[in-house]
Design goal:
Two copies of one chain form a homodimer.
Chain A: H1 5-9, E1 12-16, H2 21-31, E2 36-41, H3 47-52, E3 55-57, H4 62-71, E4 76-80, H5 96-100, H6 102-109, H7 113-126, E5 130-131, H8 134-137, E6 146-147, H9 155-173, E7 179-183, E8 186-190, H10 196-208, E9 220-223, E10 237-238, H11 240-248, E11 253-257, E12 262-263, H12 266-276, E13 279-283
Parallel strand pairs in A: 1-2, 1-4, 2-3, 4-5, 9-11, 10-12, 11-13
Antiparallel strand pairs in A: 6-13, 7-8, 7-9
Chain lengths: 294, 294
């Protein structure tokens, strides 16, 4: 998936939250010879990210952010890394540029998580910036299609995978969670507001108290994007921690949507999966849903 | 909903697990002048149930159970009350009648929960018994349609109710859980193997750590039957404990399927809901799904 010549020329601002992903993106962009700047989000970006960052800004410094983008001639914006909590109203009242935009920002902060992200995109677009995603600038970081590690799923694993996949599709239709777990031919856990990690931990607990019965290593976690999900700002992701939790829950493996999910620290994640005997699969969107495989 | 004359004449065996429901059914049957016997399941039936029971049998005494049914001329069987755990293989090797039927029973115990119950029904039917449900013998114990307590849902409550109801329908299509919670226009929790109570508790935790944001009392628990669910042996139920948990989770109310769910200890449940300011609603099956309102 080559990056278009036009995109090559534009300078990207990485607005970096927590986790190791911002540094991985920076690394991928460097290798590709792309020009970029990093803006670390105060209280979120980790030490390595902050070391690479050109500046560090808090939630309330939106005016300063736009000034930085203008000064450094960044035309594209990539929002990357997690934010551990949504900012509250008091923490965004930081500078004049923020105050000026307050009515717009307040509107953006109201409502559910997904519409918030969509509105954050609109905030940038209204200022003339283009919001890009990992798919646009570092598609090699997304999950490929097929069995990605050394472990092959067995027949019953494929069945659990299919069941959990169906469940995530239904969840997606309702814009609820991204992940589901099936064990022994039965969907046992569905992700809601708790998030994927907490859902896997629940599965481990339910196994330990015998509420989910399973002999040996069995069950599959599937994580896919919701149809309405804007993959530029909200990409389903798994990583080393997911493998760790899946192992603790006695699962046989995990599956993510090919080209539509991120495997954070890919080499480390797959190495851990291989050494733990867990499979990792990239599943293609079902052929009949008509969605383009961009 | 009158009980048919034929059904009136048959003697019913209540095979009673835990909880107060067996006694409530016994009470309802007595008032209706129905003839019945109670078989308490050892280690499950509570003290009151055991006081009313004609006999008490363990999981392994299936041969003795059939003998009892024959001796007392019970033609109908009602499986009622919860079982805290599925019996393991060693605990069912109780008597000769069990051993004789072991191949059938082993087949019945294999597979998921729902098919297990279906197979348990078949075990009784194969012996010539008819398995009946609460709907058949005490329909007055099921939830009626409409607002059942004194508290009326507000507009946003109806919206959350509708969202959670949609979610339970999707879950039902996949034969997963029975319950969902929506808060502030967003489905936040879906029931898997953990069960309804644990799901409500999770919702309370997510609110307390700010993962679900809600001002004041808001959000609705909806519990409905799955399309494939056999209501004779597996009826969605709420009770005083549900109200307690919903209150702790800061929900505004609960909704169950009218004529397809049980409100255990109805008066006590509604009294607690009223005094806690929670609404309780019986929702009709959607008009367009064509399911008969039997």
């Amino acid at each position: 998936m080559p990056v278009s010549a036009q995109a090559q020329e534009r300078r990207i601002a990485l607005i970096a939250g927590n986790g190791s992903l911002p540094c991985q993106i920076a690394d991928a962009l460097s290798r590709a010879g792309r020009d970029f700047r990093i803006v670390a989000i105060k209280g979120e970006a980790d030490e390595r990210t902050r070391a690479l960052a050109s500046t560090e800004l808090g939630w309330g410094e939106i005016g300063r952010l736009y000034k930085f983008l203008k000064k450094t001639d960044c035309q594209d914006v990539l929002l990357i890394g997690g934010v551990s909590k949504r900012p509250d109203f008091t923490s965004i009242l930081g500078d004049f540029g923020t105050l000026k935009r307050l009515p717009t920002i307040i509107r953006a902060l109201a409502g559910g998580d997904d519409s918030l992200l969509t509105k954050v995109i609109r905030l940038f677009e209204d200022e003339g910036y283009r919001v890009v995603g990992i798919k646009d600038v570092a598609p090699q970081l997304l999950a490929a299609s097929g069995v990605l590690g050394k472990i092959q799923p067995k027949d019953n694993d494929w069945r659990d995978l299919e069941l959990a996949l169906q469940a995530t599709r239904k969840l997606g239709e309702l814009d609820i969670g991204q992940a589901a777990i099936a064990v022994g031919g039965r969907v046992v856990a569905l992700e809601g507001a708790e998030g994927t990690d907490a859902m896997i931990e629940r599965c481990a607990e339910l196994k330990s108290i015998g509420r989910i019965r399973a002999k040996g290593r069995t069950g599959v976690l599937v994580k896919t994007a919701k149809p309405e999900q804007d993959l530029r700002v909200d990409l389903p992701a798994v990583g080393p921690r997911t493998i760790e939790l899946a192992l603790a829950a006695g699962l046989a493996g995990i599956a993510v949507e090919a080209h539509g999910a991120l495997i954070a620290e890919k080499e480390e994640t797959l190495r851990r999966a291989d050494s733990s005997g867990l499979f990792v699969v990239g599943v293609d969107k079902s052929a009949d849903d008509g969605a383009p495989e961009a």
